[in-house]
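thread: overnight batch results

M.L. [08:02]
morning all. the overnight job finished for the chain we discussed friday. pasting input first so we're all looking at the same thing
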Amino acid sequence: MAERMLKFTTVDRVTPPKRGATARAGDFHEIYADFIDAKAAEQASRCSQCGIPFCQTHCPLHNNIPDWLRMTAEGRLREAYDLSQATSSMPEICGRICPQDRLCEGSCTIEQSGHGTVTIGAVERYLTDKAWEEGWVAPLVAGPDQGRSVGIIGAGPAGLSAAERLREMGYAVTVYDRHDRAGGLLIYGIPGFKLEKDVVARRTKRLADGGVEFRLGFEVGRDASLDELRARHDAILVATGVYAARELQVPGAGSAGVTPALDYLIASNRVGLGDDVPTYASGQLNAQGKHVVVVGGGDTAMDCVRTAMRQGAASVTCLYRRDRANMPGSAREVGHAEEEGVTFEWLAAPRAVTGEAGKAKGVRAIRMRLGAPDASGRQAPEEIEGGDFDLKADLVIKALGFDPEDLPAAFGAPDLAVSRWGTLKADFRTQMTSIPGVFAAGDIVRGASLVVWAIRDGRDAADAICAYLSQPALAAAE
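M.L. [08:03]
and the structure it wrote out:
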């Protein structure tokens, strides 16, 4: 093993080939190619196999990263894949969209020593893509029939990962989702240049082929109340995510041409999937030829600015009230956006949307500086007197984050307890909500977060539901 590993001092860090900015800005295909076998083995061999694997402890799924890197370096690719998928329901998706620079790779020991991190995410993606190509991804096989059913509300990463695990345990699983395709934000929120949609579709097909039932175009509260679903199933998991857009609180924010980020991204993804989208065809949610200003600094803002470039915008500007070092989005995504021609206005905030006859024509902004830390410990932005400036803007996209929808009202379930932020209250040990037999997982509990955390929460919720349904008292009651 030692001969094949610890090569970080002699082998430089190399990422998979990345398409040039000009070429990739003209389409929605992923920007990175796959590793070839030899390059994946070479990069995996850079792992130091450290005694305390910080990459593993800082991965929400606690993936056994050092061991599958070693197996990759040794050419034991099927074993490496089997180990990587043992703790993750969607390793090729995490390999593409996880912010590895803030998680596993950001905690890599050799990165801290100045040798450059192991390219963990790229190797993870390579292993699972290889597994699909070689037929190593086994069909989903249900365990011994438990005689019980679970309803899952939400076909995003938390719901899908829970569905897979519950089906493996032998439960009948029905997934309900308001959209016409399963995948949640994986399908409709994240652009194709980060995650091509066939990657998601083959995962959901595997679940359907394994007996998971999908009820799409189904909205709880419209097509059935929560109580009606509880009557159909022995347990319910709420995994809806958080989709209520935070508002832009400035004059003119209600003008035509000001739109929520998710509406914009859904329209773009639907067009890419071949759907007829009237709001895109009319130009309402299409950036072609427009001056675009995106307000916000997270990963959703990066998705919007990079989408606008691909739609042929005349200019794209990201307006963020803090500096680059304090931006919540991935530094890697910021770098990609800059390469593709996006302009960043750091330490700047909107004061008004300007225009005529209720239509946006610009954004009046003001320069900011970072002052004393706020309650969260981050330096609070303050306006600089006389720092006003104007930007052209035919399309203003609000990417200020997401809040939970009012699920007690929407589900007709006033007893469903929520926190002061509107997220569902769930016991941290059992993940059960205030209603017996109703569980919750993912962003609807923790607030807007990462896909990898949603996958972790879904897997944990499946285990909690199994423990609940296995209680002798429940069996006796029947």
